[in-house]
Design a protein that fits this description.
heterodimer, A: mainly beta, B: 5-stranded antiparallel β-sheet
Chain lengths: 114, 113
């Protein structure tokens, strides 16, 4: 059983550009959540996808968007990048949305915006 | 507004000692309180979690103490080992689930041999 994987590992972009980050959920998991972890901070919830539909969103602007595919893999897209978007982006998958479902985090994508 | 405040920011403990990390929350609607462990280059991993209907939960060397009236909860690591050296995050959510977790800022624990 493979865990949650994310690509790329590291990414450098310039301000104003657009970026797409990818996440492959753990086998059998239909729910994916994305978090932003700034340096020295805890992760902040961006949004969650359940069976290809957005299932809740944190306090992030619309330039943060996502997709979930039929195989339950997911993408995070960020438009018009700002310097403050520099962070570790984590995705977490779970087998469902119930209270007993543990989220399994991937290793993250380190995004640097210059 | 930081809804979950975690302290200390860093902690150094000798092998065999007790590590204690504290968290305080503001939102009384929170009803699920997990602790995550994160090693460098890895994503956070669930360590232990508690719901407000109990005041303490123990799993091996790890114990969560929960004080609902004070809106505080803490992680105790007994017999701390060098392999426990990591960053620890407390978190909280509404609805008793792992959905939309609000995390503290983290505590860097170093256990010296």
């Amino acid at each position: 059983e493979t865990g949650v994987t994310q690509s790329p590992t590291h990414l450098i972009k310039t301000r104003g550009q657009q970026v797409t980050l990818r996440c492959s959920s753990q086998s059998g998991h239909n729910t994916v959540s994305w978090y932003q972890q700034a340096l020295g901070q805890g992760p902040q919830f961006i949004f969650q996808y359940y069976r290809e539909e957005e299932n809740g969103r944190g306090n992030f602007p619309p330039r943060f968007s996502g997709l979930q595919f039929p195989n339950y893999s997911s993408e995070l897209n960020v438009n018009a990048l700002e310097l403050d978007d520099s962070a570790l982006y984590l995705c977490a998958s779970s087998p469902g949305t119930s209270g007993t479902d543990t989220q399994y985090f991937g290793p993250g994508t380190r995004l640097t915006v210059l | 507004q930081q809804q979950v405040k975690q302290s200390p920011q860093s902690l150094i403990v000798q092998k065999g000692g007790i590590s204690i990390i504290n968290c305080a929350y503001e939102n009384t609607a929170f009803d699920y309180f997990p602790w995550y462990q994160q090693f460098p280059g890895k994503g956070p991993a669930l360590l232990i979690a508690i719901r407000p209907d109990v005041s303490e939960k123990k799993e091996g060397r790890f114990t969560i103490s929960f004080n609902k009236s004070a809106k505080q909860f803490s992680l105790h690591i007994m017999d701390s080992q060098p392999g426990d050296s990591a960053t620890y995050f407390c978190a909280a959510s509404i609805g008793g689930s792992n959905y939309k977790l609000t995390f503290g800022k983290g505590t860097l624990l170093t256990v010296n041999p």
